[in-house]
């Protein structure tokens, strides 16, 4: 995600190694929307306190649901042309709960769904 958001051309494809389905489609759409507005994001994300909330290994493709705190306070949202900080809402959450579903594919675990829960952590 970090590489995709930082590339104003949106040509980063490495995300496909880690995400699929709705999670991949949403990430690509979100980054395109930002890039179309002339915004890129640099910096890092911190994932804290991951907790497995559901396990379903009896399926053809096993999956696990994980709840975690996503800290995006280290992200720098900047205008891609001017390299100046973009204006952001003062009410924006920078540390929030996210719930993700990961599936075990032959090449490894992939995020197939991730949903911000709209609450701070």
Task: Please tell me about this protein's structure.
The structure is a single chain. The chain is of the alpha+beta class. The chain contains two helices and six strands, in the order ααββββββ. β5 (95-105) and β6 (108-120) form a beta hairpin.
Brief digest:
The chain has helices spanning 2-6, 21-36; strands at 39-43, 46-56, 63-71, 75-79, 95-105, 108-120.
Secondary structure layout plus pairing:
Blueprint: H1 2-6, H2 21-36, E1 39-43, E2 46-56, E3 63-71, E4 75-79, E5 95-105, E6 108-120
What letter string, H or E per element, gives the SSE order?
Answer: HHEEEEEE
- The secondary-structure class comes to alpha+beta
In percent, how helical is the residue content?
10-25%
Strand order of the largest sheet: 2-3-5-6
Q: Tally the helices.
A: 2
Low-confidence stretches: none
Tell me the number of strands: 6
Percent strand: 35-45%
Outline:
globular
Cα Rg: 15 Å
Q: Describe the largest sheet.
A: 4 strands, antiparallel
Q: Give the CA-CA distance, first to last residue.
A: 21 Å
* Arithmetic mean of pLDDT: 92
